[in-house]
Fold:
Amino acid sequence: MMKKRLSVLALLMFAMVLFLAACGGSEEAGGETDGGNGDSGSEGGDKYKVGILAPEVTHGWVAAVAYHAENRAEELSDEIEYQVQTSADAGEMTSQLDDLLTWGAEAIVAFPQWEGMEVPIQRALDEGVEVVNFDIAIDTEGVYRVAGDNEDMGVQGANYIVDKIGTEGNVVIMENPSAGSVSELRTKGFEETMAEIAPDMNLMTYATEFTRQAGLSDFADILTANDQIDAVFSLDDETSVGVLQAIEEAGRSDIKVVTGGGGMQEYFQMMPENEDIWIQSALYSPAMVADAVDVALQVLKGEEVPEETIIPTTVVDRENYEEFLDENSPY
Structure:
């Protein structure tokens, strides 16, 4: 009887050992996840590690960059593990870049808004990390770049205005000297195209800023100084919102076209509401950062990618604005 009890006890202990071993093996196979962005994609079954660096802004075009970058990274989460870091200045972005290197980032998508990022980005390149620069050009060899076409935005603005009002009229150019090459290229594309397709157009240039407050105050003064304005070449959607407010407050009905630039949801919503004015935006969309994330993945996969990817301009107005609405976008 004693032998029988010992035999039963031994069988029970053996079964328990097998059960515990099975549990332990299952837990080990599961591994750890990083905010739901687990592992599986590059060699050995692991996901590629992609870091995203963006400025920390609570609203506007810049804020939407981080939004669209994270959206695209999430869509690619079966192939990449990612971290999104936002910073207030070059020093903080440098520190975050170091954190991404420690994390093991294989590629970094960077949108540096400040000077002084060349050295830390070069350090990342020296460590074998691929770097895809969004929008702002960095003077560092080996960096891939994804950006919009500022000069073509001006070209499209000129074509749009001529299409709506003809080859003669008074057109106000709202340039922004503080925006540097952005303003210079958009204005260059506009003026050169106008000289070619509508040489008799009267162009009047005024300085402003890329804010609705500046658009409102500056264009109110412009309206006072000019009895007849047929169209406005505004380089930025925020400026254009202010321009439209100034037109409404002045009760003016002579302006038939207001262009813009960027891709602002609030501005899109205004397009069908203003039947007497053609409201246009030449997209320099923050959503282009999704292409930068795609480039990072392509490079890590060993695919051939051009060093510079320039996204063609898309024109948005009341006829197609619905295609570009995104109720979750911060811009």
In short: The longest strand covers residues 48-55. The radius of gyration is 27 Å. The chain has a mean pLDDT of 85. The chain is about 45% helix and 20% strand.
